[in-house]
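Deliverable D5.2: sample structural annotation.
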Amino acid sequence: MIDNPLRSQLFGMNISVDPALDNVPRMQTSPEFAALMPAAFVDELNDWMLQFFGTHSPIYKLPGNRLVMGTKAYAMLQASLR
């Protein structure tokens, strides 16, 4: 088993786990759009998009054979390898 659950290796790729990558909204207003609109409207639109599009747990491949993922994606990866 892995000594440090926040850092692991898979097929020679280094894996880092960042809880900030769990439940990332699939869609949000851009900062440019938000700057042009009233804050209450932007909040309401972001809430609607969260309800409609939901969230995901992205995985990023970084240079140097590195993967960064959230705890949910890491748990699914571990479960799929058993």
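Annotation notes: The chain is about 40% helix and 25% strand. The beta strands are 7-10, 13-17, 24-25, 55-56, 59-62, 66-69.
The annotation will be released with the project's public dataset once the embargo ends.
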